[in-house]
Amino acid sequence: MAENMANRYNYVMGIRDENAPNHWREVPENYKFAERKTVLVFPGSAAHSAQAANGMCKIVEEMLPEEIRKNVDICSLYFPG
């Protein structure tokens, strides 16, 4: 279903990851959202690149207290041009 939605609305979902290049990577097909708390950022038309989506994630990450931040995954969408 997620693949159909991605094709229909032309978006990519990514996750903030300190170990990935630029601290952001695409969410893999087998990502298990139920295993950890997840913050999903909907940037609207403001994010047309992975870098912009990562920036939105970083803003949210900086707003969270450290205790919460280390126990959640922060994901966002972006809409490739």
Could you walk me through the main structural features you see in this protein, from its secondary elements to its overall organization?
This protein has 81 residues and is an alpha+beta fold. The protein has one domain. The chain has helices spanning 2-9, 50-63, 66-69, and strands at residues 12-16, 24-26, 37-41, 72-78. It has a four-stranded mixed sheet, with helices on one face. A hairpin with a 7-residue loop joins strand 1 (12-16) and strand 2. The mean pLDDT is 80.
Short structural description:
By secondary structure, the chain is α+β, with helices and mostly antiparallel strands.
Backbone CA Rg: 12 Å
How confident overall, as mean pLDDT? 80
Largest beta sheet, briefly? 4 strands, mixed
Describe the strand arrangement of the main beta sheet, using strand numbers.
2-1-4-3
Structural class: alpha+beta
Overall shape: it is globular
Q: How many individual helices?
A: 3
| Proportion of residues in helical segments | 25-40%
Order of helices and strands: HEEEHHE
Strand content: 15-25%
List keywords for this structure.
32% helix, alpha+beta, 4 strands, 81 residues
